[in-house]
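Course exercise 7: structure representation. Students receive a sequence record and must write out the corresponding structure in token form. The form below is the worked example handed out in class, using DUF11 domain-containing protein (662 residues). Read each field label carefully; the graders check that inputs and outputs are placed in the correct fields and that the protein name is recorded exactly as given.

STUDENT ID: A-19
EXERCISE PROTEIN: DUF11 domain-containing protein
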Amino acid sequence: MDLSEHEKEKIERLRRAMYSRSLSKNLHERERRALGQEISRVGEDFEEPEADNSGIVVAPRVIGFARTGLWWLLGAAVLFFLATVGYFGYFFLLGGGSFGATPGNINISISGPPQIEGGVPTELQLVITNRNKVPLELADLVVSYPEGTRSPTDFATDLQSQRIPLGIIEAGGTRQGTVSAVFAGKEGDHANIKVELEYRIGGSSAIFVASSDYDVVFSSSPLSLTISGNTETVSGQPVEITVLIASNANAPVKDVLFNANFPFGFKLESAAVNESSSNAKPQLSQDSRSAIWKLGDLLPGQNRTVTIRGSLMGEQGEMRVFHFSAGTRKDATATSSAIEATLANSEFPIAISKPFLGLAVSVGGASGSNIVVSPGDNVSVAVDWQNNLPTAITDAVIVAKLSGFPIDGATVHSVDGFYRSNDDVVIWDKTTSKGVLANLSPGARGKVGFSFQMPQGEALKNILNPRLDISINAAGKRVSESGVPQNLQAAATQRISLATALSLTTQGLYYSNPFGSVGPMPPKAGTETTYAIVFTVTNTTSKISGARVTAHMPPYVRWVGIYSPSSERVSFNQNDGTVTWDLGDVAPGVGLNGTTPRQAAIAIGFTPSTSQIGQEPPLMQSITLSGTDESTKAPVSRTVKDVTTNILGDLGFSSANSTVVK
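STUDENT ANSWER:
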């Protein structure tokens, strides 16, 4: 729009004022005013123009919400696009779309019995179908079997896996066949057979795998365990368990192992197998809590019987459980005896109950496992009994049997019992006890007993570690709650160990002195006479360890300093005058049946005093032999009389020369 001449003139005046040095100082900022109503000052030549709002558009609120939704929709579309690109990129570059034959298009069908018998050959039908559009090259079928599977043609051969080459399976082609194996497992157990197809595709060296699984349940085991024995026992009483291991297989079961785990408190005494062999002896664990037997091969229908005997300790009311298992291992020549494939297992519980008739045995008033008596001792045995039942016991019988070394029956005596010499038993019943044992009321108690004499040491010289066992057995009858008569039994045992007949003798020598004697005989006051003191030790039935002879020399006796033989350890303590002979171990039978006894001789000098004239002074005092009986673990001690100048037994010596002369 063209400006008027008047407007152009005003603009020109303003321009000159801005660039003029004299007028520019008059131009300055307008002074600020306080907020308030604005008063427009409009010159006469000006008009207030209206604001131009033609470029301003005010959007409705609905349009703002729509714009936000469009942004979210755009973001979701971008994410979907990226995910799609990633998925197809992986599928065609690395995943199943990168090759022409995918495992998902290969079908492996396995059919067979849902339940199989252990030890019996089982067939599985396999069908492989290639639904890919390309052939499968160098295809191999790999069948992996569970632990313990055997070959159907040779049951001794362990069959872990089987590889079957199939060659090329064309597109849409099918291969089918059967595999056979003998499976091993316990009844009710599950087993898994894994079938894998390994293959290649044309133009690639990679090996691809398609797989399938097949689960079966065992309806029976190739081995079975049948256990028999008492399900109730008394603490400390003998327990016998018989286990029958039988083969149910149609082929030989190779290298059968039988394992027994014993409960706490069980002590194994013996174990026997019906078919003895070198491998039938059990191998015990270090803590004796388990044992394993190598039973060898079991033919179809064949069996082995293992009989286990021992004793079970426990509290009344406790239940103890025996665990038994049978199976095989991969390698019969392996050093390990552990069962690797368990084919059968079973449990056998035994309850510990209180004996109907409590029995307690004592010897000489003492009881326990370490009762020791000496040869020739008179031994008294007492049997205390008590009815532990809430009902009466009738016709009770108590029997004591002696076993071990022979006892002279003439020395056995019992006031209320009868000794039967033909089998060495003492019997108490209602006839010998004057009717006491005819009827025992609840809680009734009493005592029976007998006595006998131990043999002398000479009669036991050929018996090593002699022991005497006393077995007490009781029987009786009661009427049960249902009114049915029941026979009851109880038992107790006691072992008596016989100490070895260790003996010590001493002898003084003058005329037979191996060192040679000097001085008068009889001994003379104030003059020294030399003697030899000889110690002799013999032993009968048990080894003595730590044997030692000690003796004391009076102050008027001198240690000469020589002894014989030099191989023995003899020493003298000058301070207290003690002579010590350390024998160490003394073997059983020393000095018996013509063998040489242990002997040591020492030389001494005796100078009597005038106060001893007419006397037989001791030359060696306090003579003691001590040691430990290895059979009974009991200390043994023997003391002999002092050796005096009366040395009877020395050849040429007369008792007239035994006293000191002036």
